[in-house]
Specification:
The chain is of the alpha/beta class and 344 residues long. The chain has 2 domains: 93 residues, MurE/MurF, N-terminal domain (Udp-n-acetylmuramoylalanyl-d-glutamate--2,6- Diaminopimelate Ligase, Chain: A, domain 1); 217 residues, UDP N-Acetylglucosamine Acyltransferase, domain 1. Helices cover 16% and strands 30% of the residues. It is built from 4 helices and 40 strands. The strands form 6 sheets. It has a 12-stranded mixed beta sheet with strand order 8-11-14-17-20-25-28-31-34-37-39-40. A 10-stranded parallel beta sheet has the order 9-12-15-18-21-26-29-32-35-38, with no helix packed on it. The longest helix has 19 residues. It is flat, with a radius of gyration of 27 Å. The protein starts with a strand and ends with a helix. The model has no long low-confidence stretch (mean pLDDT 95).
């Protein structure tokens, strides 16, 4: 699809400077812009590219004043970054706007399917599944018995959602995600053999949750593993059984959360963080990358780092000593030698 500068300015509530009839059909980075594309300038570091880019349209802040002639048409807006993000979202919606049910999909006769859905090749939908309106399920995904997926959610290729799990509205679940696999529950026996404990709970994803590729969320032993509204999970994260993650918490890749841990609202957890089971983390907590959390964090808004993790300020003070540990040991050795000489 093609859009003119005038049409885009109307969408963004911006003002055109240049040819308002110039057409674009794609988006680009400012340094790689080509004719027929639109780009943006928000970070001053990239200002020099605005004079050399070949992009047909550049979205800029309304206070931008060029120092040299610019070939591209400008669209001036209040916030160029937010405006470009808006265009990216609309572009993505157009790109992913698929509808229709493949004849190569299997859908149980007891499943209830909403309107305007997309169900791709080799999708399996089990008994008593409920699929809402405008849901998209990409090829080779598995939707187990009794699963519910609410309106406007997207299930990308190769996702596996086990039985009884519930997916809210406006969720995005990326390829390779497994929701509802068994929690890691085994009871040790007297003969040192481990007996499996059946996991009969489920997983609940509330609205506006995004799950990155190859992340796994285990079903509860009893009850539910719960991912609350607005949570964003990166790729390659492990969420164990009966974990609960509060609203709008974001977690980076390679983090592992052990069973029955409860994480509060609006937390930010870095990559490669390990969190032990059966603890509670307060709201608004930040945990730095590669930290190991071994006990409860009870103070809202606190920042933790290290393994085992402790308060950031204390960690930073301690780190100064960590880096100088060899020198400190040498000084102690020298002092001990002097003390021994004095004692003699």
């Amino acid at each position: 699809m093609e859009f003119s500068a005038k049409q885009i300015a109307e969408i963004l509530n911006g003002k055109v400077e240049g040819d308002d009839k110039v057409m674009i059909s794609d988006l680009s980075k400012i340094e790689d812009g080509t004719p027929g594309t639109l780009t943006f300038l928000a970070n001053p570091i990239y200002t020099h590219y605005v004079y050399t880019t070949q992009a047909s349209i550049v979205v800029v802040n309304e206070d931008f004043v060029p120092d040299n002639p610019i070939k591209s048409t400008l669209i001036k807006v209040k916030d160029a970054y937010s405006a470009f993000a808006q265009l990216l979202e609309q572009y993505n919606q157009i790109r992913l706007d698929k509808k229709g049910i493949s004849s190569n999909a299997f859908i149980s006769t007891s499943a209830v399917i909403g309107q305007n859905v997309y169900i791709g090749d080799l999708v399996f939908i089990g008994d008593n599944v409920k699929i809402g309106d405008n849901v998209k399920i990409y090829p080779m995904s598995y939707i187990g018995d009794n699963v519910q997926i609410k309106n406007n959610s997207t299930i990308f290729a190769g996702v596996k959602i086990y039985s009884d799990c519930k997916i809210g509205s406006n969720c995005n679940i990326h390829s390779g995600v497994i929701i509802g696999g068994d929690g890691f529950g085994f009871a040790p026996q007297k003969d040192l053999v481990y007996k499996k404990v059946s996991q009969i709970g489920n997983v609940i994803l509330e609205d506006d949750v995004e799950i990155g590729a190859n992340t796994t969320i285990d079903r509860a032993t009893l009850g539910s593993t719960i991912i609350h509204k607005g949570v964003k999970l990166d790729n390659l994260i492990q969420i164990a059984h009966n974990v609960e993650i509060g609203e709008n918490t974001v977690i980076a890749a390679l983090t592992g959360i052990s069973g029955s841990t409860k994480i509060g609202k609006n937390c930010m957890i870095g990559g490669q963080v390990g969190i032990v089971g059966h603890i509670t983390i307060a709201d608004n907590v930040k945990i730095a990358a590669q930290s190991g959390v071994a006990s409860c964090i009870t103070e809202s808004g606190s920042v933790f780092q290290g393994s085992p993790a402790f308060e950031l300020v204390k960690y930073q003070k301690s780190y100064v000593h960590f880096r100088n540990l060899t020198k400190i040991v040498q000084r102690i050795d020298e002092l001990e030698k002097k003390i021994k000489l004095l004692e003699k």
